[in-house]
Amino acid sequence: MDQLSHRKATARLRLLHSDGTPAGSCPVSADQTSHSFLFGCGAFDAVAMMRAEEDRRAALARRMEKWLSLFNYGTLPFYWGRYEPVEGQTQEKETLAAARWLRERGAQVKGHPLCWHTVCAPWLLQYTNEEILRRQLERIHREVTAFSGVIGLWDVINEVVIMPEFDRYDNAVTRICRELGRVGLVKAAFSAARESDPGATLLINDFNTSPAYERLLEELLAAGVPISAIGIQSHQHQGYWGLEKLQDVLCRFSRFGLPIHFTENTLLSGDLMPRHIVDLNDWQVDSWPSTPEGEARQADQISEMYTELFRHPLVEAVTTWDFTDGCWLRAPSGFLREDDSEKPSFHRLKQLIHGDWETHSQLLTDPEGFLELTGFKGGYVLRVRGESARFGLLNDTAEPQALILRPEVR
Known about the structure:
single chain; alpha/beta; eight-stranded parallel barrel; five-stranded antiparallel β-sheet; 10 helices; 16 strands; globular
């Protein structure tokens, strides 16, 4: 049994020359050029690239080219306290430029997050709860509208399970969550996002994979909140989940029948964070090196976890949080070391995405130009003796689709 059959489709095609005659009895190379599945990674460097000086910009561009050789889906930062550190002064220009840069190179883009109690704008604290809520919803309308057509996926609200109980420091979002309740705030935030972009994919996102998150989802869906996909964080700084926990999480959250996105995945290539740390942000170190043993372990764990997630029919996206070491918490969490050299995990994942899970076939049309192509879902180019045609293989099709071949430009 093919465990990846749900990732594939079969199409019957008819290839025609530009004059309308069939490309009969012709050898055809069919090469996949893009994936429908979202293989993602944090793309914060794309924003930094837009505001960097020339030398630094060139270095970031080289790093992002490596990023693009693996991924087709990037997460960009919209933390309110950094996106708008001074009221009315936003990072829209460079963030929009970064999003367009990624889209021009074939990557989908997600904004993260529109509402969160952490990294919240401190200037909001001067306002009443009523005014904070008004500004929060206004902020959602502003960002989703401004980026419509460029960013089509959003983490609308982040880490709601803990939000009303969060007590490490005062913040505006926890204040309004306590007043409105979890369901009230989430419903208001999702309504604002949906009004601003009716076609957007809207996620709720949380690190809490306990039954508390399941209960919250039950309440939200019963209240009619338009959740497009369930976001699950999987930062594993204290050790790999392993298949048993991964399969348990998938089983429990599959019962909602919604697409599942693994939104923030971390697997280390160095020493693990001690188990007694409760809040990962409390682990502050001057240096956290990658090691040869850790790099081998990381590559194995990346391979196993991605394979299990790619097999699952409800999983639509997997995003590794850091592309390079030394980012969040200075952890050795990337596919590149701090000097931008490639780790074994880079090559292992590349073999999966652009090797094992990518279709390249040699076919032959019948005398009338018909052929059947089965492959992984995504974009394809078909080449026949100096001519080519592009098409998207997304679903099984019984009726033949006619493709016009055009001369290739050399």
